[in-house]
Specification:
A hairpin with a 5-residue loop joins strand 6 and strand 7 (about 85-90). About 5% of the residues lie in helices and about 50% in strands. The chain is mainly beta.
Length: about 120
């Protein structure tokens, strides 16, 4: 029988996955510790959903590969666009980071979120 998965306590769910070092845009960017606990992971079409917790960090994103819906449980993030404009998000806010996004992800504190990602499809 398939049952619902209770994600109410996002932090407990996220850290159940165990810590790992995040992959960054370059070797000179400090890699924070992250916890990602997937409840859906399908390679084709690429769909991932779950909970995520990550320590503070800042990194450059170029041509983001996914459409990613996020709902922040704790912490704040700031997206800085190439033209210098900014969007800020905090607890209780939801947003979509669209495929193709280029800019800076700035996370001054630990973040906990629910997320759903859909990946790029090969058109070849």
């Amino acid at each position: 029988m398939i049952r619902a998965i209770d994600l109410t306590d996002a932090e407990t769910h996220a850290i159940a996955a165990g810590p790992r070092q995040m992959t960054m845009s370059g070797p000179d960017v400090a890699a924070p510790t992250e916890w990602e606990n997937l409840v859906v992971d399908r390679p084709s079409p690429h769909v991932r959903a779950g909970t995520w917790k990550c320590e503070p960090y800042t990194d450059q994103i170029t041509d983001y590969e996914f459409d990613e819906f996020m709902y922040l449980i704790a912490g704040h993030i700031e997206l800085i666009y190439p033209d210098g404009s900014r969007d800020k998000f905090g607890p209780g806010q939801a947003f979509l980071l669209p495929q193709g996004f280029t800019g800076t992800w700035h996370q001054p504190e630990t973040v906990i979120k629910f997320f759903v990602m859909t990946g790029r499809q090969d058109t070849a």
